[in-house]
Every structure is written in C-alpha cells, then in structure tokens.
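seq as requested:
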Amino acid sequence: MIRCIIELVPFGEESKKRPIGIIEIANDGSGNEFTGNYKVLLRKTPPWKGALKSEWKTALVKATRDDGAIMIGKVEGFDRIKQGPYDLLFKALKACGLDRRN
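struct tokens:
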C-alpha cells in the first residue's frame, strides 16, 4: 500500500504541523508484472483513526462514494515499467474525480 499524507506546516514551523489530507493506494492483486490495478481511498478531513483501515472494509464495497469526507476510485492498467509513484498518485487523484472539480 502507498500512503500519502498532506500536512499544513504554518510558517514552516514543524511543531505546528497538522494533517489536512490522506490518500491510500492499494494493489488489488489483479494485475501482472507489467501492469497493476489499484484501489484508492482519499480522506479529505481528520480524524484518521488507524488511517483508513475501517473504510477499506466498508467504502470499497460501493462502486462510488463522495460523502464530503471520503472518496474512492480505481486505477486500472497502470504501467509499472514506464511509470513511477508520482504517476500513480496523479492517476489515483484523477480516479477520485479531483480533475473534474478543478
């Protein structure tokens, strides 16, 4: 699983940092050595008890969800050879529909 945490660091002061977003990207096991398929959970608001562990069991059962706090998506056919982690993150954000909102 890949987890990206977005933090706000007011005036660059580490002691005042706080998380403002989190995204988890998990391989669903249906790809091969060249291409991967991934489930995506994006949580836009705290708190994150155990990150999104409980949501993996409930939210991914539904095809789509955007309740103001959690968004889900799926990245299919990701080229593991030609693309890297930032490409996967970009595609995961798109899979959650953020490109349509901006």
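Helices lie at 53-58, 85-95, 98-101.
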